[in-house]
Amino acid sequence: MEDFGKMGKSQVALSLFHAPIPEKSYFFHKSLVLRIDYLSFDPQWLSFHEREHISSSENQKVIELIPSPLSLGAGLLPVLDTFYSRSFLAERF
User: Fold this and answer.
1) Which of 24, 56, 90, 91 pairs as cysteine with 52 (C-beta 3.0–4.6 A)?
2) How many independent structural domains does the chain possess?
3) 90 pLDDT band (50/70/90 cuts)?
4) How confident is the model at residue 77 (pLDDT cuts 50, 70, 90)?
5) CB 85 within 8 A of CB 55
6) How far apart, in whole angstroms, are the C-alpha atoms of residue 8 and residue 13?
7) How many Cβ atoms from other residues are within 10 Å of residue 46's Cβ?
8) pTM higher than 0.90 for the full model?
9) For every residue of 12-62, which 3-state class applies, written as one string?
10) Is residue 57 a contact partner of residue 32, using CB atoms and an 8 Å limit?
11) Does pLDDT of 1 surpass 50?
């Protein structure tokens, strides 16, 4: 198994869909974790969007990002064209 300590440390990380937040030893002294949550339509849950997560600390800020089509959330990327299916792309490229 690789020794991740030799790979260097990061200042920014993404944590997706309630994955455990990486140990602080993987980061520089001060770091930022953007915790991207599941899609939500719940206005009460969306009130946590862009706020600090409960596990945030002075040296490791953890910011909650909640995707939603509602105005309180992080928004969504629009689907512009559904012509490009997985099989089309595999055959083409």
Assistant:
1) 56
2) 1
3) confident
4) low
5) no
6) 13
7) 20
8) no
9) EEEEECCCCCCCHHHEEEEEEEEEECCCCCCHHHHCCCCCECCCCCCCEEE
10) no
11) no
Count of beta carbons in the 10 Å neighbourhood of residue 89: 9
pLDDT above 60 (res 47) = yes
Who's near 53: CB < 8 A, 6+ residues apart? 33, 35, 62, 63, 64
Domain that holds residue 38: 4-92
- The b-or-e profile of 57-77 (16+ CB within 10 A means b, else e) is eeebebbbbbbbebebbbeee
The whole-angstrom separation of Cα 25 and Cα 6 is 12
